[in-house]
Amino acid sequence: EKYKFEDHYIRSNIYLGIGRCYSNANVSYQNGIIQYEKAVFHADKIPIQSEREIQLSIIYTNLYSAYYNLQNIEKAAQYLRKILSFNKEYPYALIGLAKYHNTYTKNADSAKIYLEKAQKTNMTEYDKIMFYNQWGTYYGNKNEYDKAIAFYKKAEVSAKESKRVSALEITLIQLYDTYQKKGDLDQALIYYQKRIALNDSLIVL
Q1: pLDDT in tens, 44-83
Q2: How far is 138 from 99, CA to CA, in rounded Å?
Q3: Which of left, alpha, beta for 125 (phi over 0: left; psi -120 to 50: alpha)?
């Protein structure tokens, strides 16, 4: 940081990196946000539009995560909307807003719209896990438990294949909860035991 780079792309990445040091280590989300805002300032000055928009998408994603972890859900959602204002096919933002409506506003119609839009995008493996999870939540909220379970199981497979342990744990919890709501306590117990085994081993089953 002590070097005075004139390149706004480099300076933006420096502040983004510092922000991640604060946020990813759970040291201070507020300090992370301060650094991310500095990163935005320089990203806005990147002359090439495509590079500027990619950089802003990355920074806004980190701001979303920071505010989400601070339980400021409305502020977090604003950053997803900012991304979609210039990149309407950014799957992470579409899935994140589906989660926002599934979990906080309970607006099933809006959640479905965002998920259908995300379905048409080029998703990463992590995006696919969250995509399946949100479809599962969508159907779970409608008490259509068999459909919810089918999507959660897709998320489970994707999480195992991509070795996303934290995402797998979330999915196992969702399967446990959904089987309980369905009244299938035998299957609920199986997924409860899978989650315990995952926590004990710290490896993907």
Answers
A1: 999 999 999 999 999 999 999 999 999 999 999 999 999 9
A2: 9
A3: alpha
